[in-house]
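One such shown below:

_____
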Amino acid sequence: MDMLQRVFIILLLFFILPDLYLYFRFIVRITKNLAYRILYWIPSLLLTSGIVYLTFFANDTLSEEYTLQIGWFSVCFFLFSAPKLILVFFTLLGAPFHRWLRWPRTPFICTGLTLALCCIVMILYGSFFGRTQFEVKEVDYVSSRLPEAFDGYRIVQLSDLHIGSWKGNDKPIRKMVELANAQHADLIVFTGDLVNHRALELNGFEDILSGLQAKDGVYSILGNHDYAPYFRWKDKRDQVANLIELKRKEKEMGWILLNNEHTIIHQGKDSIALIGVENEGEPPFSQHGDLHKAIKGTEGMFQLLLSHNPTHWRREVLPESTVDLMLAGHTHGMQLQFGHYSPASMVYPEWSGMYYEGTRALYVNIGIGYVGLPFRFGAWPEITVITLKRS
């Protein structure tokens, strides 16, 4: 059984079992009208048909050309399945209390209905408003190693644009560029995942993204998606050519890619090292980074590292380098956050914000774009302004 079939079975169970339970637990008791009973099943049948088609018949071309439509299909799937799952959970939770303690079922059912309604509101808000609710976050990094001339130096960090998901909707990207430029940064950095799969996703967006402006320029690195490992290429040479094309497009936009290399940023008589590595992820994510090659020649300097995957910080950066501050992305905060909690925390020890080990630090930006669901709730698209300060 391949991976797609496993996913299909999981989705089907996730969707159909709650439907069956609610149908026999409530619907058959509420109405005897055959038309109403059939109407209950129509959304489920339509969505199940869609899952079958996407799992067994859709090809990569369809998935790429209709990314937004598939995303909205996914929103509909969760809009119909997640609230039902919540209601089923609380209904079943109340069953043993009713049977053995004679507690009434109503409070459990009402709790389930209330939370199911909240879930519906959250999904609708996150899909229609949350994914474009840009948040500018201001953070400071203080270090005694920072050269005096860089005290107050402002860096705008952007990450995880996933530009293919914005096809036909360039207004939010224009807004992002305007917000980033309004910060009057000395430097703009982009920490990977510019595209979902292919360089051609940038068509129509190059002029907008080339509008990013900072005194010391715009620098970028590659993320796992930029290597297009999730697209079924007919020939490995096509995948290589795609990466070359992506690099060419970034150069034409005025962005400077740092692929296991560094540059020196000057301010007055002082300087710092800006270092960039190719994606260095934990398995199964691609590992192309060469930190030692990238930092060679920057020994003794204040070192600012761009590395897409935050797990790189503990795996290699802390034990094998003297990097002062690392900037990463990748996690998206799983596009869902409640206060200071996100499901991303179950996967990534460092998933959003600033983390310290002594005076050394990692900042994780939760990104601008989205993968799969056109949805963000709580984990709003982020533009980070990092101010370097000398202690």
About this structure: The chain has ten helices and twelve strands. The chain has a mean pLDDT of 94. Residues 135-390 form a domain with the Purple Acid Phosphatase; chain A, domain 2 fold (CATH 3.60.21.10). The longest helix spans residues 67-101.
